[in-house]
Amino acid sequence: MGGTLCICSRGSITIENKRYFFVEKLGEGGFSYVDLVEGVHDGRFYALKRILCHEREDRKEALHEVEMHRLFNHPNILRLEAHCIIERGSKWEAWLLLPYVKRGTLWNEVEILRDKNTFMPEDRVVRILHGICLGLKAIHDRGFAHRDLKPTNVLLEDNDRPLLMDLGSMNQACIEVTGSRKAMEVQDWASQRCTISYRSPELFSVSSDCVIDERTDIWSLGCVLYSMMFGEGPYDMIFQKGDSVALAVQNNISIPENDRYSQGLQSLLSLMMAVNPQERPYISTVISHIDVLQPMTDGQATTKI
């Protein structure tokens, strides 16, 4: 369950026998907070994710996130440095110590470019996409799916190396659905754990006789690619306007007319966002397509941004 944690004086904590100083708050969500801390032993900065566990099920989910992190030691998946579970009266908190990536998320980068009224050049899009795919392949190869892939769940290091994070929604890649009860269970879970504007069509209305597989991630990956190309996800505005995303995803994706990106990249986007999951490629096929695109983009002059 990890080492013991004690909250000491002057804003310091100890996790697994190492001491860290609190620096500042980085952000917060519905049931979690992220703080910037500095390791006394090494002078490095870390992100401390604190998950509030009101019920036993919350604690179970937090431990699940820890276990998912432990499965991987991959350059494109955010590693877990340390963790612990502490008791606070009748409640619990799960503390996950993670590397601090100063630059922030892929979404931060997309917003910066959009505010400058410019776009990410194709060679950079392809390079970042390739790194995301390698991390996703590692997850799929272990028999899991991420289930909540989106630009805010991809960190970008200074060299543009992407890191997949927020593994709390990960579960088994293949889910066999037999009967309406199981279908509703999966659908309800997806509505709570999979971000609506990046959720694949098959998770909005789950059939009572089907197999949900890791290609839900391929749809989400397509949405991430779209956001890098056009400055927002394909269904972000639909959600923000209050229109039905569930209805919108039942139609083939409409790619804005542009002369910035090659036909090969646009065709890959359309392939990943096939409404029928059986028509979507697996991650290895996506990587094969990217391998064809990379020599083309490597030879192009990059646009300075």
From TrEMBL:
**Gene Ontology cellular-component annotations:** Golgi apparatus; membrane; perinuclear region of cytoplasm
Its function?
Membrane-associated protein kinase that phosphorylates on serine and threonine residues. In vitro substrates include DRG1, ENO1 and EIF4EBP1. Also autophosphorylates. May be involved in secretory vesicle trafficking or intracellular signaling. May have a role in regulating stromal-epithelial interactions that occur during ductal morphogenesis in the mammary gland. May be involved in TGF-beta signaling. Able to autophosphorylate on Tyr residue; it is however unclear whether it has tyrosine-protein kinase toward other proteins.
What residue stretch is flagged as signal peptide? none
What Pfam families would the database entry show? Pkinase
Q: Which domain of life is it from?
A: Eukaryota
Quaternary arrangement and interactors, per the entry? Monomer. Interacts with DRG1 (via its N-terminal); the interaction phosphorylates DRG1.
Membrane topology for this entry?
Lipid-anchor
InterPro entries in the record = Kinase-like_dom_sf (IPR011009), Prot_kinase_dom (IPR000719), Ser/Thr-specific_kinases (IPR052239), Ser/Thr_kinase_AS (IPR008271)
Does the keyword Lipoprotein belong to this entry?
yes
Alphabetized Gene3D superfamilies for the sequence = Phosphorylase Kinase, domain 1 (3.30.200.20), Transferase(Phosphotransferase) domain 1 (1.10.510.10)
Name of this chain's protein = Serine/threonine-protein kinase 16
CDD domains assigned to the protein according to its UniProt record, in alphabetical order: STKc_16 (cd13986)
* Listed transmembrane segments: none
* Species of origin: Hymenochirus boettgeri (Congo dwarf clawed frog)
